[in-house]
Structure formats: structure tokens, C-alpha cells
Write a structure and sequence with these properties.
CATH class of the largest domain: Mainly Beta
CATH architecture of the largest domain: Roll
Number of domains: 2
Mean pLDDT: 83
Radius of gyration: 16 Å
Structural class: mainly beta
Helix content: under 10%
Number of helices: 2
Shape: globular
């Protein structure tokens, strides 16, 4: 097993061309902290399955360990984990203002809620220009794969790579 200070988190990550599932081992209490950690330009996954999104989605390649460039990851969907300890969340929670956003990324469109902790609701300042934060969470997310529009995913939370966002706007409710 893993030391008490390390957790294993099952994730589903998407690049422009691939859906990759596997386990990230993290010394951080939250997945976002691992995704935003400085010092390494890659993520290391174990027990990996990789599917080419442009081919048959039923065909995948199994890989023991995969090293992936963080800059290639569009977004990450966390699934079950072997940590953090009971009562501790993968994402910290503080009551915040919520906005429904429309996000365009290569090959994908996402809609989901962004949570902002200040009075200003300026998307540029709050979502795109936060220093030291590469991945930002959206909640209650719908993901659409543009090459195969019949494929949509629903997830309670998605960590989005801000550097790969092509466009973002507020959905008027």
C-alpha cells in the first residue's frame, strides 16, 4: 500500500486526441494541488488505459506506467481514490459566488459552474489570470466531444487546464 501521506487517485484525463485513465499518486491532500504543483512538467500515472478519441472508442491500450506532459492535458475528471483520509475532501470548500460558464477547448466544449470568492466577477482576472494556478475546477460539468457530438460526459467536478482554454464566457440563465 502507500504511505499515510500519499494518496492514489483514479483520474480520467483528456488530451486533444486521447482519453487516458489511470492512478495518480499524490503527496498532496487535494488533486488540484497535485495538478498545480510546480517543479515537474509531467504527471505520472499507473495502471493506465489509453483510447484514441478519433478511432473506435472500444479499443484501448493498457500501459503499466505513463508519463504525460502537464501542458498536453486539457482537463481531468477525478474518480474514486484510496485517499485522502476520511472526512477530508479532494477539493477544499469555501462558500463562493457561482457562475455558469461556457468553455471552448481543442475538440471539446464544456459547461459548468465556476466558483469565485471575491466581489468582482471579472472572468479574465478570476479564471484565466490567477497566478500559480494552472488547473481550475468547474462543478456540475457537461463535456461535449466535438468530433463525435453524440458523446457527452457528465461529472460533478472537472479540473480544467487554463492555458488550453480557447474561449470562455458566462451563460445567461
Amino acid at each position: 500500500m502507500y504511505p499515510a501521506h500519499e494518496s492514489r487517485i483514479l483520474v480520467e484525463l483528456f488530451t486533444v486526441d486521447h482519453r487516458i485513465t489511470g492512478y495518480i499518486s499524490s503527496r498532496h491532500a487535494r488533486l488540484l494541488d497535485e495538478l498545480n504543483a510546480t517543479g515537474l512538467s509531467y504527471l505520472l500515472l499507473d495502471e493506465v488505459s489509453s483510447t484514441n478519441l478519433h478511432g473506435p472508442l472500444t479499443q484501448s491500450v493498457s500501459i503499466a506506467t505513463l508519463r504525460i506532459n502537464r501542458n498536453a492535458v486539457l482537463f481531468v475528471i477525478p474518480h474514486d481514490s484510496e485517499g485522502p483520509p476520511a472526512g477530508q475532501r479532494l477539493y477544499s470548500y469555501v462558500a463562493k459566488k457561482q457562475l455558469l460558464l461556457y468553455v471552448i477547448m481543442p475538440n471539446f466544449e464544456l459547461s459548468g459552474n465556476a466558483h469565485f470568492g471575491t466581489v468582482s466577477l471579472n472572468i479574465r482576472d478570476m479564471l484565466l489570470d490567477l497566478p500559480g494556478v494552472n488547473f481550475t475546477p468547474l462543478t456540475d460539468v457537461t463535456v461535449s466531444f466535438l468530433a463525435k457530438p453524440h458523446i457527452t460526459l457528465q461529472s460533478p467536478i472537472v479540473a480544467v487546464n487554463k492555458a488550453l482554454i480557447q474561449a470562455v464566457g458566462i451563460i445567461e440563465e
